[in-house]
Amino acid sequence: MESGSGAGAGAVELSFAAGSSFDEEEEPVSTVPTRERSLPPRRSREIARESIALGAGGGPLEIARSGGRARKVVRSGGSVGGRVVAESGRASLTAGEVDSMAGPEPRADLVSQPDVLHTATVESDFSLPQAGDHLLSGGAVAGPTERAVQFRVQASAGTVGAGGLGDPVGGLSVGVSAPAQSIGLPSVHSSFWPPWASGSWGAGWSPVPWPMGGAGVFDPASAWGRGMGRGGGPADWWALGGVGGAGGPFGVPPSGAVQLSGPCFGLSSQVFAGSSVGREAAATSFQEQVQRSGGVQTEEPGRRGLGRVVAADGAAGGGISAMSGQRGPYMVAAADGAAGGSSGPIIAGGAQDMVSSVGARRAASGVADARSFMEPGREGLWDLLRQSVAPTTWTRYNAGFRRLFAFLSSRDWSPGHVSETLLAEFVLDSHRAGFSRGVVAGHLAGFTFFSRALGWRCPSSGFLVRRLLTAMARIAPRQPDARQPISHDLLTRLIVELPAVARSRYEVLLFTAAFSLAFFGAFRVGELLVHPADTVGARGLLLRHVQCGDSTVSLYLARSKTDQLGRGRTVVLNKINGVTCPVTALCAYMAVRPPLGLALLLHVDGGPLTRYQFLAVLRLVLRRCGEDPAHFGTHSFRIGAATCAFLAGVPGEGIRRLGRWSSDCYRSYIRPHGIARGLDQGGI
DNA sequence: AATCTAGCTTGATGTCAGAG
DNA sequence: CTCTGACATCAAGCTAGATT
């Protein structure tokens, strides 16, 4: 099965013309027209690094904010307040409106409550005389609307491989909005490599035969899958295993002194705010993190009830929707649209806010946000409700709510209970407008979600609605998934051809590792790559999640689509022969990977490998292999892995665990003939 | 009890506008 | 012209409830 050809052996350093990260010192010998790929500019990041000027004691505040597409300066006569703990370093400043302005009918109950309306975080060097000092005093923003502004100074030290702590914690977080006990962490993990690197699990790490078809060692008595967590048992022998449990495989000592280990690869230890050992490291690491992050970090947008939303929906890259001027009870419109995790609104400062509409594609619709109908004083409930679903789902539900709200408002409807007749009319209207069944059902789901939260009756599962949706599905049935699997043979060819499209030796190693991991790990692209806007590495493989051994690599998946609670799983890949070997590929890449950034897969300048680039290179090399790129996607690696495992004789349960499926839907990926034909295909 | 199905949730992806 | 981010849509994936 293995070709064993040495693809990269005689490869010269070639170049291609895109990507964000090519080492300028490397000699570009392009074999691909620059039209296909070119160096992306990074000036936006430079702009983003422009810092803020902090006006202490009520002085003027100037925030230069910027991003991928826009740069705006917001001035406001404000002051900041807070108790700053860290002494020096590079801090990010989170600013948010305490509340929205008063509209024609201001709600005093909301206006009076301090809370962050919109926040944005920018960074700045800071140097404070003494930890614990009250350096900056609070105050209200001047202006007719009397908005207070709240800032949080955040000195982030980055994180170390303390998987047991859950998602990376932003290191030191200090300021007015951070209670003292939240500053720093109760314990410090000192070393970069987690304890299991020392081999404590060693007995359980059986070679994984897949997809070689049974060449492995079966050790059912191992700790693998037994002592380490869920899903144990003999069926694990072949598999990638799942190590569950709250702590994950990464041990975190309950206590201990701060001890910085040697080169941290951009991931310094978490340290106490008050730790003298840690401050310098914190500052250094944070600077590094900021540089990697592109400068602007945003927080989850929080919003309050009534008022005028002056800026919302800002992309991390700087897009901001101008929503100013809206009045009345249904004022918010698109403000929540950025809840997708990758972005957050940018603040607008004072009374004369300058708000950019750059990058906004969606015009103000004047349609309500569901939160507008929340009873006063229950905002905390709303915030927690938001956490009950994924950010993407929240965004989508909001879109559904807005669309249905707009439709209902055009009928004789007042906010509140909805009749099934009206819902049926909505379905009919959507059908005539050309929406698919899935889209309409999604809109209904979103509206129903918020209706339930608000106590509105919304019979979206009524007979009429259900039948109409069924009719839509029958009229326009789903198209079969046309994406073809990337077989192991094709993977081999892709890797062999990579040098022809890569710009440098480094990129050959990067994409070889990326493709090999995508296939053998059966990763979703979102599990493999870190989104550029994700500065904390909430998703995707991070450097600290990887452990290379002589014959295995282990990859810790902190969370995934099927692990929303973030229990974590570890994927172990074993060495095989040939150019596709994930262990060899990853180790080769790790040997040249720059000591920068959080993401595992990044360019030589530290920028993360993006989906766009991953797909662009995949398409280039597919074309070079004589394949039609239109038939493949990033998911083709996952489809190929399932298909390949099936053809190699891996049992159904094995395939299920390989791709971390918790249902039988993996069967739709068994596509020995290329195209999906149905769930019963494959006869598993 | 086993199987099927619809509904809900969520990741992947295509398209568009804008930045550079 | 490429690349990014936002959005809309498609489709994966899970589960509760209905059906057999």
UniProtKB/TrEMBL annotation:
One GO term of the biological process aspect: DNA integration
Disordered: region residues: 1-45
UniProt xrefs under InterPro entries: DNA_brk_join_enz, Integrase-like_cat_sf, Integrase_recombinase_N, Phage_Integrase-like_Recomb
Bias (Basic and acidic residues) ranges: 34-45
GO molecular function term, any single one: DNA binding
Superkingdom as given in the UniProt entry: Eukaryota
Keywords, alphabetical: DNA recombination, DNA-binding
PANTHER family (alphabetical): P CELL-TYPE AGGLUTINATION PROTEIN MAP4-LIKE-RELATED, PHAGE_INTEGRASE DOMAIN-CONTAINING PROTEIN
Protein name: Uncharacterized protein LOC117353902 isoform X1
Protein's organism: Geotrypetes seraphini
